[in-house]
Amino acid sequence: MKTKLIIAAAMAALVSAAPAVAQEYTKGTVKEIKADQEKVTVIHEELKNLDMPAMTMVFNVADAAMLDDMTEGATIEFVADRVRGKLTITDVK
Hints:
Elements: H1 2-17, E1 26-34, E2 39-44, E3 55-61, E4 75-83, E5 86-92
Parallel strand pairs: 3-5
Antiparallel strand pairs: 1-2, 1-4, 2-3, 4-5
């Protein structure tokens, strides 16, 4: 019983000590916003985490409220990932 408790404590310590994965922000310019479709077109720099070169593309947004803070022509920094198979902006600053 004591051995199981020690193993459980050691595993919990390892999990809590695991480093957090830093999100990498990419710079882009908002080209078009389609709020009714929860999509935004962005002219962006290279998306390293997705292995994509700089280009213009349409993204879904993880939260429609993100679009409230965007305006066409604005420069943004964002995180994009594949969510349920679709390229999606998951964070904006």
